[in-house]
Amino acid sequence: MIKAILIFNNHGKPRLIRFYQYFAEDMQQQIIRETFHLVSKRDDNVCNFLEGGSLIGGSDYKLIYRHYATLYFVFCVDSSESELGILDLIQVFVETLDKCFENVCELDLIFHMDKVHYILQEVVMGGMVLETNMNEIVAQVEVQNRMEKSELCNQN
Amino acid sequence: MSDVVEKTLTALPSLLSLDSHPGSAKLSSTSKLGNLIRGITELTSKHEEEKLIQHELLAIKEQVSSPNTTMRQMKELMVRSIYCEMLGYEASFSYIHAIKLAQQGTVLEKRVGYLAVSLFLNESHELLLLLVNTVLKDLQSTNLIEVCMALTVVSQMFPKDMIPAILPLVEEKLNHPKEIIRRKAVLALYKFYLIAPNQVQHIHNKFRKALCDKDPGVMTASLHIYLQMIQENPEAYKDLTPSFVTILKQVVGGKLPMDFNYHTVPAPWLQIQLLRILSLLGKNDQSTSEVMYEVLDESLQRAEMNHNITYAILYECVKCIYTIHPKSDLLEKAAKCIGNFVLSPKINLKYLGLKALTYVVQQDPKLALQHQMTIIECLDHPDLIIKRETLELLFRITNGQNVTVIVEKMLEFLCISEDDHTTIDLVGKVAELAEKYPLKYNEWFIETMNTVFSLGGDMMQPDIPNSFLKLLSEGFDSVEEDRKLRLFAVNSYIPLLRGEPGKLPQRFLQVISWVLGEYSHLREDLEPAEVLSLLAKLLDMKNSSSETKSWVLMAMTKLCKGGADASVTQEVSETYSSSLDTVLRQRAHELQYLSQDPELRARVLPRGAKPETLEVDSSLSFLDRFVSEALAAGAAPYKPPHQRQEELDQSKALSLEPYGLSLPISMSSCSITDRQSPTLLSMSSGLSGDTLKLDGIKRVWGREGYLAQREPVEEAAQVEVPSPIQSPGRQGEGDSLHSQTPTQTPTPEPEQEKQQLASSLFVGLASQSSVSLMGKSEPMPQRFRRKAKGQGLGSSFIANEQISSSLISPPSAVDNLLCNNLLDSNNASELAEQTSQLSQSLTTANGTCHAEAELTESDTKGCNPALRRDNCVVAAGPGPHNDPGRLTEVCLDSYLPAELSGLSHSEIAPLCANQSLNLSACHVQKEDSLILVVFIMNSSESAIQQIPAGEVTSYSVAVGQYSLTVKRPAVHVEVVGTVSYQLPAGTSQSLQFSYKVPLTSFIRPFVVSTEEYGTMWLSFSHDTKQNLTLINDNQEPLTATLNALKKKLQLHVVEVIGMEGIVACRLLQDLPCLMHCRVNAGWLAVWLRSPVPDLPDCLIYHCQRALQSL
Predict the structure, then answer these.
(1) Distance CA B559, CA B607 (A)
(2) CB-CB: which of A20, A22, A25 is closest to B90?
(3) Residue B217 and residue A131: Cβ atoms within 8 Å?
(4) C-beta separation of B426 from B410 below 8 A
(5) Best of B44, B275, B348 to disrupt the A interface by mutation (most A CBs within 10 Å)?
């Protein structure tokens, strides 16, 4: 199970937060801060796995992250997920964002936070990996976009 | 930062143009979000941000509560509140509006509403109840996107109590024509299974169907469920192993559409999932493991090292190979694979390599030897995570010889680690090692523990100091050794207290004061007065906790002797005898009195006392009389906290149960008889000290570990390993280790250092005798041994083995079904294959049932029996009964397998026959299963080939056993099967049969307490009611009727209260059915409830029959 997905920038500003397990609001913020603290001090030439952040559930949990330009993508998972599998899932997710936003940058995530959430919903559902095929994900998002457009046309 | 702002500004116009809507509201609001974001990026301090957001929230609040706000504006406002919430500012006022938006908006607005709800609320939030209706409506919508949204929100969070309300709708979606809906429905059901497993008990069939779905995506989703369920109960899913193997084979073989490839690797995530499932299934199970060897080998070979994701598959593969029953050539390949990981320059792979090694060395410690230089390098790796993982690995290979070096490395790491979690974990491990191998390193042991206590501080597990003190006090065999150990501890503590005790953690201070109190007298040159004053200093420290203080006071009580010490103790006891803390006050008074009365003190706290056994009556039975008196006086019976909580929850939650049921759970049912049930438990606690709580502490290292001298015959070989210097043999090994290292002499200085380290770390790994030193490595040698035994057994055993493997290897019809769906292969050829061999015949039969029930959903058979093969087909030799004329049913009796012959079995009924074969069958009721025994009798002159038992010679009988389970209850369960066989002439033939078993054969008594019955009753959803005739020939018709039913149907009468009785039974594998009977106007009104559909109806039929036949 994926317990949480956090995206924040190099300064620790959250860009997308999705918890699949309940944490109180202040706890969530603490987790974001601690995760940022842990992740940001790691060089680029060390491994992408972190173990046992004390906040989000101890030794069974792992942080798997990737750093892209200004953004950190962090997945917090339990032992039932494969480390390398998740690492590539992050890649798939980012590539999908790139395809949907055409050259995605941090700003897209800021201004279209809701859209990013919708895309994420097609990749991970309730903490379970739903789809790993980028074309499938994009197709699902496209369906929603078409609906959006047609609705806008109807209103005009 | 400035360029971000700049980019923001340039991005804004394009954003606005994206929303082509001309409405001014939209325009202004979009710029509002833009303004907000821009505003935040320009801020410099947290404080300013807070002010800005509060202001923003006020504005949003005002707008959302205004009646003029349109749904569309609401949508935009929601996005803004989501943004604020993400930054950590609560926008609770908007929660209700998010729900409203999801309820009333158009599809797009709904989408925002659902998103906001799923981000804002949690499963137990009360507002969520308002969403249930919306979800219900959307699940029934014809708009696919609405259905998807509803399923998504349901899988994110849904109130547990409301699951029954939407369950049928979600189940229905499993048959939806769109695969994306099916896939989402499967995941939603998985989520339900996680939060309320008993709610989805009855849909296991549907999970199976999802596994056989023609869309691989849906099948992948269903693996989530199977992984979870197999983890919980691997035994129940062994029959699916061939199916999983077949799927994996097809995936690895590239049979899936190209769409599923990721970087030319076919469906890697699916492969990973399958490998995990297989490793769970094959664990400790040789026959199941054998099924998967081939495909594992193939996966290892197919995975080319071209991408990250292939390593992910390889890693799982290796783990799987080492988890299941071992096969030597696979192990070899896997070991080679681990080498690729460990030696990889990529740091992620190195990490996984270390992890794999850690996993593997428990079974094969020699593997660590091969990679010793890499491991040494990793120990000095700049990445702390790698370093930690290496230490974890070393922890697993610790033995009596390398323990000091490894512990030293761990302590080094502890000094630089900043992460609390790591510290706690590592401290525990060091303590475990130190206690496991103290041997002759007394001083080392104490010193290590001192470091552990000072580094671990107050975060460490409380059982570490406790077990340390226990060790110290219980002592070992040699009095002299004990004395030395304790003296050394005292010696090391005194300087610590003289130094700066304020810096020591509280736990350490407690340990020190206890040890000084007990053992400081061992050091003769030490005046008690000095110890007392040192201890008194601890009391004065500001940061001493009151717990520490009471430990100190206890120690002082043990030490004080009057005379010169009197002034110190007097002062201390006076200070604390008026303390607000009652414990401290008590200790202070004790100190005061005992210091004045040496005789009493000697009696209460005898010096050097051996631990005595304390008897603890944990059931508090001595209070029973008091309880019964109180109950008699009308007190309410005691309910444990969890029950009270449950009742509270139940009264709070919405009731989905119909009204009007008066359950026979009365006060009287919770009488004292229940309360007496906890048995008297005597516990031996090994301490003379009074504040130490030692019960429940894990004994990591105890008497056995140290008592090498006491049991030299058994223990010496394992524990007393001579040190390298003393033993020339070991020395030789050390040398060979040297020569194994890749770089030969001459080596540069640092390299030599490393090699030295290597030889000290990996010493003792190569020899078999020291392998057993490692507690954790034991399972593996055992497994090897078992395997060897298997090979060494007589030929009969091997023959049997072959039979069982031949039974497994052909694909069963379940696979065929899968193949059909997955790959559109030819149906007819499958059918031909089905009957091709006799050895698989019954499985095939079973599979046919499956296929019929699942594909056509027809009820023609009214049942869906699943045969689980027991793998025990026994070939009975011709024996004395080989006269054809005498091969009657009576004779068949004697062919019953020995383990079943003691049990009652039904009459052996002839099934069918042709010129060469005679089939008969009976069923045997075992306590937890129903066994179908099929007798295959060869009535011809010639031998018949390829019967399950291999060959059946002329006029002999082969017997097959099959364990039956019921998937869907029916009044009678019908088993249909085919036996196909080969005549010597080479012609294949088959024989079909069917066999009927009444449902009652599957019913077993179900022993529950009245309370359990009560809670279960409420949770079961399928029920039926009927009036039955009472037996009237007795004074008590109810008891008589219930007893009759009990006798006929194997029910369990839970309790009879007045005119009501409650009865429980179960259908084999824990499918319960509860029965509530009440005498009403000459009839017995019976109400049956069960989580299984149809079970109540079928059971009531049998009840009726049972009573009529009387």
Answers:
(1) 10
(2) A25
(3) yes
(4) yes
(5) B348
Neighbours of B626 (CB within 10 A): 10
Interface contact flag, B259 A28, Cβ < 8 Å: no
Cα dihedral B104, B105, B107, B111 sign = negative
What is the 3-state composition of chain B as percent helix, strand, coil, each rounded to the nearest 5? 60, 10, 30
SS3 for B740-806 is: HCCCCCCCCHHHHHHHHHHHHHCCCCCCHHHHCCCHHHCHHHHHHHHHHHHHHCCHHHHHHHHHHHH
What confidence tens digit (pLDDT) does each residue in B150-209 have?
999 999 888 888 888 888 899 888 888 988 999 999 999 999 888 888 877 777 888 888
| ipTM of the complex model | 0.94
| Cβ–Cβ below 8 Å for B156 and A125 | yes
Please report residues of B whose CB lies closer than 8 A to that of A82: 269, 272, 276, 312, 315-316
Q: Look at the pTM and tell me if it is higher than 0.90.
A: no
Cβ contacts of B982 within 8 Å, gap of 6 or more: B838, B944, B945, B946, B988, B989
Q: Decide if A69 touches B, using CB distance below 8 A.
A: no
Nearest by CB to residue B348, choosing from A84, A118, A136, is A84
Q: Which residue has better confidence, A58 or B846? A: A58
Name every chain B residue with its beta carbon within 8 A of the beta carbon of A38: 419
> Would the CB atoms of A46 and B183 count as touching at under 8 Å?
no
List C-alpha distances in Å: B603 to B558, B599, B693. 11, 6, 22
Question: pLDDT digit string (tens) for B614-626?
Answer: 677 777 878 888 8
In this predicted model, which residue has the larger pLDDT, B724 or B215?
B215
Q: B728: which 2 tokens?
A: 């020339």
If you compute the radius of gyration of chain B from its CA atoms, what whole number of angstroms results? Answer: 37
How far apart are the C-alpha atoms of B643 and B662, rounded to whole Å? 20
Q: Indicate which of A33, A86, A111 best probes the interface with B, i.e. most B CBs within 10 Å of its own CB.
A: A111
Q: Please tell me which residue of chain A has the smallest CA distance to B183.
A: A130
* Residue B482: how many other CB atoms lie within 10 Å: 18
Mean pLDDT: which of A23-37, B400-414, B1034-1048 is highest?
A23-37
Residue bearing tokens 């309880």: B627
Q: Find out whether B937 and B886 touch, Cβ atoms under 8 Å.
A: no
Please tell me the distance in Å from B155's CA to the nearest CA on chain A. Answer: 5
CA end-to-end span of chain B? 90
Inter-chain CB pairs, A–B, below 8 Å = 169
pLDDT of B700 above 70? no
Structure token pair of residue B657: 């149960």
B961 pLDDT higher than 90: no
Question: Which site among B189, B261, B421 would you substitute to test the A interface, given the most A Cβ atoms closer than 10 Å to its Cβ?
Answer: B421
- Counting beta carbons within 10 angstroms of the beta carbon of residue B616, is it exposed (0 to 12), middle (13 to 18) or buried (19 or more)? middle
Nearest-Cα residue of chain B relative to residue A117: B115
Q: Taking CB atoms and an 8 Å cutoff, what residues of chain B touch A59?
A: 421, 425
